[in-house]
Design goal:
single chain; alpha+beta; Yope Regulator, Chain: A; 6-stranded antiparallel sheet; 3 helices; 32% strand; elongated
């Protein structure tokens, strides 16, 4: 099983800035400037990015959520969009049992690519 030290070595191999928030939580700053939170929570490793706040108008929030579900269904291979509190998040969870660096890197790359390709389409839903 992949342990905490293995995850730390995966983070080092990404060659991206990493900040240690707690024993089992790190923030990775992607090349695009996003803050990717990596949480070691056996039996899984969770990756999460806060994308944007939900619009305050329920109709706009509903349209945004529909767009996110469409992305989940047809464009995302790894990870999915969701709502956490009042924020849109992009997450992925991987089992630690057989996790290797290439799977970890693919997840990071997939989340980064989704952000880069979807942010312009999601921009009209941002407020302020």
């Amino acid at each position: 099983m992949t342990n905490r030290e293995d995850v730390r070595s995966f983070l080092d191999r990404l060659e991206l800035p990493v900040e240690n928030l707690a024993d089992d939580i790190w923030i990775v700053r992607t090349a695009e400037g996003a803050e990717l939170v990596v949480s070691y929570a056996p039996p899984v490793l969770v990756l999460r990015v806060r994308v944007m706040p939900l619009p305050s108008d329920p109709a706009r929030a509903g349209k945004l959520c529909r767009q996110l579900l469409e992305y989940n269904a047809r464009e995302l291979v790894l990870g999915s969009y969701g709502v956490e509190g009042d924020n849109v998040v992009l997450t992925d969870a991987m089992e630690l049992e057989n996790l290797d660096f290439s799977e970890f890197e693919a997840s990071v790359d997939s989340l980064s690519l989704a952000l880069a390709s979807h942010l312009s389409a999601l921009a009209p839903y941002r407020e302020g």
